[in-house]
Amino acid sequence: MSPAKEARRSVADRPTTARLAGRGRDGAATRARIEAEALRLFAEKGVDRTSVRDIAQAVGVAEGALYRHFPSKEALARSLFLSRYGELAARIGEIRAAFPDLRSRLAAIVTHACRLFDEQPALFAYLLLNQHDHLGAVPEATSGNLVEALAVLLGDAVERGEIPPQNVTLASALALGCLVQPAAFVLYGRLAGPLSLHAEAIAAGIRRVLRGEEPD
Predict the structure, then answer these.
(1) pTM of full prediction above 0.85
(2) What is the DSSP-derived secondary structure letter of residue 119?
(3) Tens digits of residue pLDDT in 176-192
(4) Helix (H) or strand (E) run with residue 48 in it
(5) Do 177 and 118 reside in the same domain of the chain?
(6) Of 55, 89, 116, 184, which shows the fewest CB atoms inside 10 Å?
(7) What does the buried/exposed string (b/e) look like for 165-186 if buried means 16 or more CB atoms within 10 Å of the residue's CB?
(8) Could you tell me which of 128, 77, 112 has the C-alpha nearest to residue 195?
């Protein structure tokens, strides 16, 4: 082969920016499919009873493809929990910035959570059933911690006199319980869904808890 032909072949074989970008897009799409199928399987079967092979077969890739994105099944489970938990925390921060008072903020948070549950019940099931395994790894920063983000929002309400002075971390836990337990009841068929049908009642219940009022 002449030097000129060899040079042309070398250039042709070299990955172009477009080809590399295409690979990057394919990798991102594969990772998204892995996360979606893993989330579904973890919610249905539990992390322990879900194998890497189960996830790979659901995605339609070789098991090795999973290890190119996550070092282990446990790392995948942890990444899923922290990223989705962090997304909910970020949404609370956005609502705090967008709405002026506690009543409207709570209504927006509950509405968002109920809609998310109705659209992605597997996500809620996974977060609910696996929180004990991962909450210890949640960062303390408000941006990634749902409880801390909610505590800041409730701290605003205390400062403005919208609710009595109280431990806002405990209040956040109580408020989340008012939301999570009805979601669990819908998930297991104890309460008729969709959860969005109960959003107004849930928000009202949270307000009563935060004000220290007895149920009507």
Answers:
(1) no
(2) H
(3) 999 999 998 998 899 99
(4) none
(5) yes
(6) 184
(7) ebebeebbeebbebbbebbbeb
(8) 112
